[in-house]
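Table S2 (continued). Query chain:
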Amino acid sequence: MALRIQTADVVIVGGGPAGRALATRCIAHDLSVILVDPHPSRRWAATYAAWEDELPAWLPAEVASTRIERPSAWAKGATTLDRTYCVLNTPLLQSLLSNSSMQVIATKAIRLTRASVFCADGTHAVGSVVVDARGTTITPRSAQQTAFGIVVNRAAAEPALDGSAAWFMDWRQDNGTHGGDQPSFLYAVPLDSERMLLEETCLVGRPPIPLSELQRRLHIRLDNRGVITPEGSAIERVRFGVEPPPGQRGTIFRFGARAGLMHPGTGYSVAAALNEADVVASAIARGDDPHRELWPHSARGVAALRRVGLNALLTLDPDDVEAFFARFFALPVDQQRAYLSDRRDVAATAKVMMSIMASSPRRVRKTLMTAPFHRNTRHARPSPTPD
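Corresponding output:
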């Protein structure tokens, strides 16, 4: 096979939202880009969502197909969240992040070094910076999020909503579960003016709840609420790891979920990637170290606290998970925002975790205090939905 050498300022491996967001912002900073992906034309089918205040200014407002000004949550009772939640228009997002100026190599990357990518088709892509944006991986030990969803028209979904515009999380046990079962929640959001996604979600588990079990729970929940799902309704299946693969520091520069931008307690990473893309692109354009810009001491501190939070969710007794979220949703919205969205405010993240611990029953406090020392594998845990 003949070796073909192609060069650019930046070579990005992985054509998902994170890789394409970074490619788009690098081009905005007058950098040339090669994007390596085996299926660059594959249509994105996932549902992506974000809090409106997380979206970067360089994205046009119409990228949000729906906006829910005050979504609801149910954890030991109904709560209204005073923060606008957006479901993104996936085809439009993909189009916006598909800048024609990037050079696309439709093949698999075989080997990456700091300055080059060796491809399966014989191409050798060389750049000043190589970025690995291939997402997370799944192993038997991975903490994962799983979900099974059905898309129905808004009228059919109404009985599941109880008058709410959307359920960010609905932890009620009308899904056929009982005390001690791995918990799952209903995520119900409008995709556009006509369609609603109703999704049974295992926030995070090691191992996670199987998709077949989530499908069973969803149908029981919807039957109990009088939701009729037409035959042939579109289905969404979700399964991904919420932790980055090992071997990160000192090797190839990583971005997106592969770099640890995914919140391990929620499974959200797209908004973080969209926001950090310009930070990283600007650093590359200046000739600075992109890893240092992406991971200052404050960001590493927040990431460490979030890992503690993940262990807490994995360690909590199943019957205590809903109470944990009831306490989280009772926090002021600025504290909720700090924990869910801020990557660089260590003090604010620690304050939220201490507030939840202080207001929890003694047995839960004990679990939360010992969580940093456990790597629990017994059951699955909670989080806001997919990315």
